[in-house]
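lol forgot to send this yesterday, sorry. struct tokens for the thing we talked abt
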């Protein structure tokens, strides 16, 4: 593995997902889901009231809800999260990001912007591979989207009974929280799931023993007699037909392949007033599958030899990813291993979060250590100079990775929105392959302004009295900035002026925090009921419908959306 690949893993795991070390313990026992099966066991043809494509963060709660009044088929292209310690136990988070196999739960891709990213490929979706932070959308967001406030709150509570927990805050996270308050990210909102300006402790989907609870856990609400979930079931296309007297085509079935590449067909039941196919394949998968099925920009579909069902030019448009920029701060004293637990929600529309500690493979640790020492030995030039004793201690910090005891914290900023938008386009007609995705990070100047303000706040926190014991006093912030510029955190060009220009630093070191969205937005591709415009019996229910990320982390809202979108009551 080359240094570039190692650093992808390092920052993908530590900075984008936050890899941490806890005592190794996990539950091998899966829930008693008799309805979850391998697609290889599926009949050649099946009939259901609803066919849900994607058993992810939205698909699982949606399926559980709908099963109390209809028969449900869920087709998930990935496997089960249960019994896999790389998923269920926080200590083994890193190997998930290292896994490049065709069945990896985290499918890697690089956007056309040169930023490394992943998309989930597992039952439970992104909730099975993320850092676990749980927080609700703001009241303003709910109002702007037009959701029913009471139903939204009921749906959040329904989710939280199963997957959300209050984290234990230890010394490093306490220092981050106190530092944010010291530099003016006020007020102190203590622990809350709610989105409030100021500094707060949010929830987590990891319990006190370090076990992950994903959206797949919400399937315990389902009626087991009415639901079937097929794993490793990759949908190839949605089928459409024209019915006399109707102007619009109707979705009526899907073709999917199992792990052995055997084709199966699933159809909606006839003579039912339910009869819907629901795309919940995520912000990458949903627009991609619409295009593969003949719904998208006609010129683009024809270029790939796809028969056009509906010319839908806005499919794949409005793709956005909240840019993330970070500082890695070596610590002179031991730090606890912590998840993202504290967030500063600023008035200038940037989120400040942090984490401490990580674990990596020994071979990766040595490569990182050697690179870091080379960086330190070369920092003898203006505008800063790292003293020999600081070099030795910082190098020792990186050496500690091999023993899973790194002394460092990372503080990040993620902008709200964002305003900058991009697009998605097919690479080929293989649904297993990643499409081309462009996010156009910082295309809009306002996004860049938010990043600069966020980085200034991070620098203020690093220099605060509250945080002082977790940083080397003789290692200036400029050294931390220069460190980030020496590491291949993305494939973008690094400019010499990025050391002293926060604007250039934001552009050069941008990363993802995996909160991308868009591609099937409300009013452009779907209506307010999430029905695809111009097509009968087809909806899209997932983050691809969003214009902006809801709050500091979208997973709570995506799970809530799966519950409330059909006007669910407390029947489950």
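and heres what i got for the seq, position by position
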């Amino acid at each position: 593995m080359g240094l570039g690949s190692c650093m992808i893993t390092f920052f993908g795991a530590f900075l984008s997902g936050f890899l941490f070390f806890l005592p190794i313990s996990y539950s091998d026992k899966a829930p008693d889901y008799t309805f979850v099966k391998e697609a290889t066991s599926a009949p050649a043809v099946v009939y259901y009231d609803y066919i849900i494509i994607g058993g992810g963060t939205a698909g699982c709660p949606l399926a559980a809800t709908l099963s109390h009044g209809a028969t449900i088929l869920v087709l998930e292209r990935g496997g089960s999260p249960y019994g896999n310690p790389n998923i269920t136990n926080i200590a083994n988070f890193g190997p998930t990001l290292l896994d490049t196999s065709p069945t990896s739960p985290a499918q890697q891709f690089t956007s056309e912007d040169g930023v490394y990213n992943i998309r989930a490929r597992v039952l439970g979706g992104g909730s099975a591979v993320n850092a676990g932070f749980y927080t609700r959308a703001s009241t303003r967001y709910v109002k702007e989207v037009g959701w029913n406030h009471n139903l939204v709150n009921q749906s959040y509570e329904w989710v939280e009974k199963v997957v959300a927990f209050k984290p234990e805050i230890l010394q490093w996270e306490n220092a981050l929280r106190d530092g944010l308050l010291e530099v003016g990210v006020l007020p102190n909102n203590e622990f809350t799931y709610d989105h409030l300006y100021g500094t707060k402790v949010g929830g987590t989907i990891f319990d006190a023993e370090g076990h992950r609870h994903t959206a797949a856990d919400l399937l315990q609400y389902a009626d087991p007699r009415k639901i079937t979930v097929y794993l490793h079931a990759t949908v190839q296309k949605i089928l459409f037909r024209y019915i006399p007297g109707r102007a619009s085509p109707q979705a009526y079935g899907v073709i999917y392949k199992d792990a052995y590449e055997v084709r199966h067909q699933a159809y909606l039941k006839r003579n039912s007033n339910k009869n819907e196919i629901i795309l919940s394949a995520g912000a990458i998968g949903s627009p991609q599958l619409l295009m593969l099925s003949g719904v998208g920009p006609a010129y683009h579909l024809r270029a790939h030899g796809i028969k056009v069902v509906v010319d839908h030019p806005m499919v794949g448009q409005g793709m956005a990813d909240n840019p993330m920029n970070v500082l890695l701060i070596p610590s002179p004293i031991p730090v606890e291993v912590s998840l993202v637990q504290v967030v500063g929600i600023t008035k200038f529309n940037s989120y400040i979060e942090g984490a401490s500690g990580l674990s990596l493979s020994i071979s990766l640790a040595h490569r990182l250590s050697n690179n870091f020492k080379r960086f330190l030995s070369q920092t003898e030039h203006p505008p800063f100079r790292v003293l020999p004793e600081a070099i030795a201690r910082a190098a020792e910090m990186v050496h500690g990775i091999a023993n899973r005891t790194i002394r460092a914290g990372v503080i990040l900023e993620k902008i709200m929105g964002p305003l900058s938008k991009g697009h998605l386009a097919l690479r080929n007609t293989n649904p297993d392959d990643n499409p081309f995705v462009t996010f156009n990070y910082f295309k809009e100047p306002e996004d860049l302004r938010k990043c600069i303000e966020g980085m200034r706040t991070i620098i203020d926190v690093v220099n605060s009295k509250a945080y002082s014991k977790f940083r080397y006093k003789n290692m200036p912030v400029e050294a931390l900035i220069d460190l980030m510029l020496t590491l291949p955190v993305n494939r973008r060009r690094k400019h010499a002026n990025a050391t002293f220009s926060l604007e250039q630093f934001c552009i050069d070191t941008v990363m993802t925090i995996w909160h991308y969205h868009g591609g099937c937005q409300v009013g452009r591709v779907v209506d307010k009921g999430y029905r695809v415009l111009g097509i009968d019996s087809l909806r899209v229910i997932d983050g691809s419908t969003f214009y902006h990320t809801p709050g500091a982390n979208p997973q709570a809202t995506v799970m809530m959306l799966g519950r409330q979108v059909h006007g669910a009551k407390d029947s489950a």
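The two ends are 48 Å apart (CA to CA). anyway ping me if u want another try
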